[in-house]
Amino acid sequence: MEASSKPHNRGLISLLFIFALLFSIYPLPLEYRWYRPELLTLLLIYWVLAMPQQFGPLLWFGVGMVQDVVTGSMLGQHAVGTVIIGYLCVLSYQRIRNYSLWQQACWVFVVCGIAGLLYQWTNSLRGVSSSGLMFLTPVLISALSWPLFVFVLDQVRKRFRIS
């Protein structure tokens, strides 16, 4: 079997994560910052649901730590959130795969909402003022974009034979 016919392309997955990290720090006007979807979280959910054996807790923690460093948040804040998200995905990936895309979007809303609550809680422990329920806006935008996100990443997986 030729090396080029092997399905791998893990480098492309890394590039997608780097793009999502850059998207999370891209400067936006203040009035639009709450409408930025959580691409890194969506990527993590997608790849854990698609290939749960290849994406383990160490990777989830590493992605969260890199996000903490890149965004300048409290060290470990996103790391704990990504570990919780990854754990919930691994616990239920067989069931979630069988849901329709809109049912999956509702599940993504709940999972991202749990992470958002965790981030709000840790920020309140640090004394950072809360903006009410506005932290749920990126969660809602992420959940609404889930069907399109899955469609695009499924096409990428087929095109570049990622398995």
Your description of this structure?
The chain has 6 helices and no strands. The protein is mainly α and 163 residues long. It has one domain (8-28, 37-159).
Euclidean distance between termini CA atoms: 16 Å
Give the structural class. Answer: mainly alpha
H/E topology pattern: HHHHHH
Radius of gyration (Å): 16 Å
> How much strand?
under 5%
The count of helical stretches stands at 6
Are there runs of 5+ residues with pLDDT below 50, and where?
1-5
Count up the domains.
1
Largest sheet: none
Bin the helical content.
55-70%
Mean pLDDT: 91
Overall 3D geometry?
Answer: globular
Quick one: how many beta strands? 0
Comma- or semicolon-separated keywords:
0% strand; 163 residues; disordered N terminus; mainly alpha
Topology:
Blueprint: H1 10-25, H2 39-50, H3 57-71, H4 77-97, H5 101-126, H6 136-159
Short description:
This protein is mainly alpha-helical. The protein has helices at 10-25, 39-50, 57-71, 77-97, 101-126, 136-159.
